[in-house]
Amino acid sequence: MDDNPYRAIECGEPGRIGWRVRYYDSLPSTQIKAADLVTTGEPTGTVVIADCQTAGRGRLGRSWHSPAGLNLYLSVILRTRLAPSMYPQISLVAGVAATEALESFAPGLVALKWPNDLWLGGKKTGGILAETAGTQSTADAAVLLGIGINVNLDRDQMTPDIVARATSVRIATGKPCDRIALAAALFERLNRRLGELEQSGFGSIRPLWERYSALTGKRVTVINGSERQTGVVKGIDSDGALLLDGEGGPERIIAGDVSLEGAYGQDGE
Ligand code: BTN
């Protein structure tokens, strides 16, 4: 018997995202497995999915809570033609794709928090971690697009550090959500939006990102290492940088952790 529950949604020609799903009951991290597969020649479009992760990774060295049987943890192997300077835009575009996929399961609740947090009803339900693998100067280079989405996680299954600021599709909508159907919608939107990025650049996708932005017009604080900037978000620019109307004038932010004033009464991630 096939023990890959995602087999039914593998689709399309080799190279399309989701044409092949490599499924594992448990992995330290789908990012680590995807990086191993890249070194052994795994083609573009393969998606590595784990039912649970024992060392799931988040942005900025954080961990990603990854219990079994509930959520989506996946890494897409992308051997892209895009220049490395456009890699930050890949994760923004993936954020748009994931938000569009979530929209059909949680209508009216979705939003994006720069750079790539997926929000439902004002709390974080998912995140995107784009990393590179292989040697960038050779044909084995790849971007690993790691996506984690809390699908059916309940409050009592959260760790204390995330309970105030995290949610799931199930919590936000009050209904269980089919992880496999959500993954299929995600593959479809990723193919469409990343195809547009490759063909026409970020310009056509930027307005979509802006439409979902939870931050535009809001006062935020951005922390990057020892630097701290406060201001009102004006939007993002054509490179995907966050534009702030700061206390000392316009600011262009390319990295950092953004806290929305008044969110959850604390760090706001
Ligand atoms: C974030 O910090 O917001 C990004 C979280 C990314 C988590 C996903 S889960 C699948 C993939 N494997 C990992 O170890 N991390 C990413």
In short:
With 269 residues, the protein is α+β, with helices and mostly antiparallel strands.
Report on the architecture of this protein.
The chain is of the alpha+beta class. The chain has two domains: 7-211, Bira Bifunctional Protein, Domain 2 (BirA Bifunctional Protein, domain 2, 2-Layer Sandwich); 215-265, SH3 type barrels, CATH 2.30.30.100. It has five helices and twelve strands. It has a seven-stranded mixed beta sheet, with helices on both faces. A five-stranded antiparallel beta sheet has the order 11-10-9-8-12, with no helix packed on it. The longest helix is centred in the C-terminal third of the chain and has 22 residues, at 179-200. The radius of gyration is 18 Å and the shape is globular. It starts with 19 loop residues before the first strand and ends in a 9-residue tail after the last strand. Bound molecules: biotin (BTN). Biotin is lined by residues 29-31, 53, 56-59, 62, 64, 73-75, 117, 127-129, 146-148.
| CATH homologous superfamily assignment of the largest domain | Bira Bifunctional Protein, Domain 2
Strand percent estimate: 25-35%
* Overall tally of domains: 2
Structural class: alpha+beta
Helix share, percent: 10-25%
SSE order? EHEEHEEEEHHHEEEEE
Please identify, by name, the CATH architecture of the largest domain. 2-Layer Sandwich
